Amino acid sequence: MAHPKRRQSHTRQAKRRTHDVAKMPALAICPNCGAHYLYHTVCPSCGYYRGKLAIEKAAEAEKSIQATHLRYAVQQTCIIKAPGS
Ligand SMILES: [Zn+2]
């Protein structure tokens, strides 16, 4: 395999690396709630996409609360059952 004839100076290496910077993605402002979101995606804050409700955030929150309660109930049952079994 080909090898470089001369080693690159630290300056030249640094100059090349000036372009290796992570850039912030362009964000849009939601016309429904005013939060920032990525273009061509559903707003993560209110669940609207192009002026229409795409994901019902309230329903999702309710589901997650129910799941948490269920997990807690299962945990409690396991703790109660553990000494006897
Ligand atoms: Zn929104």
Helices and strands in order:
Blueprint: H1 10-17, E1 27-29, E2 36-38, E3 48-49, E4 52-53, H2 57-84
The protein binds zinc ion (ZN).
What's the quick description here?
The chain is an alpha+beta fold and 85 residues long.
Q: What Rg do the Cα atoms give?
A: 26 Å
User: Which percent bin holds the helix content?
Assistant: 40-55%
Shape: flat
Q: Strand order, biggest sheet?
A: 1-2
Structural class: alpha+beta
DSSP summary: helix tally: 2
Instruction: List segments where confidence is low: pLDDT < 50 over at least 5 consecutive residues.
Output: none
Number of domains: 2
Describe the sheet with the most strands: 2 strands, antiparallel
Bound molecule kinds, no repeats: zinc ion
Q: Give the averaged pLDDT, no decimals.
A: 84
SSE order, one letter for each helix or strand = HEEEEH
**Cα-to-Cα separation, first versus last residue:** 67 Å
Strand content: 5-15%
By DSSP, the count of extended strands is 4
